[in-house]
Design brief:
By secondary structure, the chain is an alpha+beta fold. The chain contains 4 helices and 3 strands. Helix content is 36%, strand content 11%.
Length: 84
């Protein structure tokens, strides 16, 4: 609940961001409700060919195993054809 409130304060649309990810690369959820997919920040750099750098939950946990920062990960979502 706390994470949802923090995301709301950021005005971050988690469901829309999830829809923007490469769905054909997505796996999950695992036993802890984490999904795995290609990190958009890594992809922008030509990395993450195995599509396993990014893990996230629908509750707002977002983590890149290659150490991309949160705002770098969501940057492409907000900067596609103008800002959202």
């Amino acid at each position: 609940k706390i994470t949802k409130a923090k995301m709301a304060n950021l005005a971050f649309n988690m469901p829309a961001w999830i829809e923007s990810l490469e769905s054909d690369k997505m796996r999950g959820p695992d036993s802890n409700n984490f999904y795995t997919t290609r990190c958009p920040s890594c992809a922008k750099k030509g990395k993450d060919s195995d599509s396993n750098h990014l893990t996230y939950t629908h509750e707002g946990v977002v983590h890149c195993h290659a150490h991309c920062k949160f705002f770098d990960i969501i940057d492409g979502f907000y900067n596609k054809e103008g800002s959202r």
